[in-house]
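Now for one specimen:
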Amino acid sequence: MYLSKSAVTMIMLATLALSSPVVFASARGGGAGGGPGIHSSSGTRLLDRDRLHDRLQDRLYERDLKLERDRDRIYGGNLMTSAERTRYEEQLRTLPTEQERVQFRMEHQHEMQQRAEQRHERLGPGLSESQVRAQEHARQQERAQIYGYSMMTPKEVARYQAQMGAAKTEQAREHIRAEHRQQMEERARKRGVSPPQ
């Protein structure tokens, strides 16, 4: 089951809140090293919750970026030319339905397996149709969340997600969204198409 980054964050924070406080055993007065920390009346040092939250967010974001890279990696891309990879990405992005994208990717996997066999090269096993379908469903959710997604390149999508992930406040995220929306509307105007809905 696919969980969004925010959903996973909430689950992990709820688990943290229900568990006992994170405590580092140390002697009264801070023990060896004596670094900064929050001390209770008993002299125990508690991990700063804000820093823990930031660290957790960073780890989740890094994990999501890795998942994103894995999901967007082209099967058999090492057997393709740069022009073929570009054409593949363009074709995939223009297919209107999830079923068409799944079918396109399954056919591509078969083609790459045949190419690898002809060249006597090793190619890892492809994904099952259900796995491809799950990936495409996740991509569709992403498409719905990013304004102007269909006009963006994969690198632009990754850059936008990195900016949103690095933003520390909702105000900062709103600023990024507003600038992005303006850029996409300008791009649509230059291409002579209707702005994204």
